[in-house]
Amino acid sequence: MFRLRLLVIATTVALAACSPQQPGGANTSPATTSSVAAASTVAAPAAMTNNPFFQASTLPFQAPPFDKITDADYQPAIEEGMKRQLAEVQQIADNPEPPTFENTYVAMEKSGVMLNRVMMVFGAVTGANTDDALQKVQETEAPKLAAHQDAIYLNDKLFQRVEAVYNQRDTLKLDPESARLVEVVHRNFVHAGAKLSDADKTKLKAMNQEASTLSTAFTNKLLAATKAAAPVFDDKSKLAGLSDAELAAALQAGKDRKEDGKYVLTLQNTTQQPELQDLSDRATRQQLFEASWNRAEQGDANDTRKTIERLAQLRAQEAALLGYPNYAAWKLDDQMAKTPATAMDFMDKLAPAAVARAKREAADIQMQIDKDQKALKQPTFKLQPWDWNYYAEQVRKAKYDLDENQIKPYFELDNVLKNGVFYAANQLYGLTFKERKDIPVYQPDVRVFEVFDKDGKSLALFYCDYFKRDNKGGGAWMDNFVGQSRLLGTKPVIYNVANFAKPAAGQPALLSFDDVITMFHEFGHALHGMFADEQYPTLSGTNTARDFVEFPSQFNEHWATNPNVFANYAKNYQTGAPMPQALVDKMKKAGKFNSGYNMTELVSAALLDMNWHMLGADAPLQDADTFEAAALKKDGVDLGYVPPRYRSSYFQHIWGNGYAAGYYAYLWTEMLADDAFVDFQDNGGLTRANGDRFRAMVLSRGNTEELSKLYKDWRGQDPSIEPMLENRGLKDAAKK
User: Fold this and answer.
1) Residue 3 domain-assigned?
2) What is the mean pLDDT of the segment spanning 524-532?
């Protein structure tokens, strides 16, 4: 997943419409970017000269100097950064010279260097290592940043210059990337409301500030709610089924919370929790599931329902003001799908097959429940969502003789990273990696690697922060500390964040295979950022449509199961022995197991997102729970035993991370990724020739061309949904 910055450079789109963080960071001299910042006519306060964000970092790749940055540095740097960028932008707007590509578009690309620098780092630490002081800064600055963004996009003098160049674009003889920049930036201005009347601009500014405040409040409430909801157990017997390592981690979590001697099951961001497949005590499973399901619905200060109800209503009103029937129509206007109808149509091809398969899986699970209860001479019971993972695991063991605990010893985190994730990148693209212990980090668990290109030249820095913490947002994501741009002379500094269970001291970090896939997924985003090779930051790397940006990451997941890659990392952490072929074969046979459930929980979340954002401006304020139940029923995905992957009240993707009306992108890009993998398979699979071609034609191109054309030029045809249906075990599922 991508984490979305609220605002960085002047070409970021209002209402969180653009793709998340640009890749970035470089070995350029500080003079390169400080000379840009010097264009500002605003004199910095004397205190700012000692602020670590005042100048570009002198560390390699301009990496953030975390050894010098304190919580107190962020707010003044954000305020000063906004002041400087507004001065730079106003200078562009007031330029007496006729508008040209150079004095308008290129000048805007050079604006906001200091603000960009601080916001990239601030976004990282508030997402992965926040505290009360940082959350207060977030809440204070969010509406100011929204107002700042509006001050740029709704600046009429500036837009007149933007439009004047846009209207001349066919006569300017621009190179293709520059021509694309003109189109994208102009569209961003119009999309953000640049053509509204002054009265409507005033209304929109107020709405944007309120929406920003609500989104920040949601994120902070959810973090607190997730921590508070983690169930605590005194009685170890209630946790029967968990491994010694899992029990030790739960005990350590209790100690970390001043609950010595107690076991805490910390919650991840999804509805279902990993421990549910192992816990044999049904009451414990129910307790854990309900803690997750109701985490943000406790009627206390951290209850998010009123926040999201108002945010959904506000987004609908904003969209109407901008001339769209609903927020989804506004949001998808510049995406690959283009319209909500196209996205819904696409999901309508998936939902019936997914639900049909999930129902068949449920029947198998119910049979297993009945069998187990009969053997115990106990009355049977009806399958509930807290039972699914536990009994699905029993079915998997029975059908495929496969136990998750058999697999984990072969997936030790460091080995997966170096001999799996990095190895695949080497085989495909020629990359090599060297760990750097001399680069400061924001938390002791974070590691840093220097990335070297196929010619041996230094390409990027890569940070990884894999372990769960109470002050870290849920899920997994990729982002950047510094953005790639030849114009600014910067190279990529990228990080991956996840929420894997941290082992007790002295214990290995053993992963589930889902965790392994997550590592490959997020590193796919990292590759998209590392290979960025654009002139302009607006078009660089991962600054693409939401329903394209997940394509490189989902494509990279395929290499986790490539036989050559798998054999290189799937080794016992104690003996170094490779996974026995019999166990590998069992994994392959079980590969599509539970696919109906997995797809149904994903599709139901995507449909839920779309329903929230297809509300019209005249719709009344919704009751979150009532709306959710009605939406799931309307779309035929209201299976009681298959809850959506995210409930509305903790759906961080859509209320806090820029995926509003965009969660369907995970499904859309699965289609792209599975179709793309067919091309690799048809042309030799894991080869440098395939990797180099994919890098040259897709991964290095950013948003420099219309994305549908970019894909088709590489693939030689439009994407097909058939490989996706086949890979996900859904082909003809609805007919069976």
Assistant:
1) no
2) 98
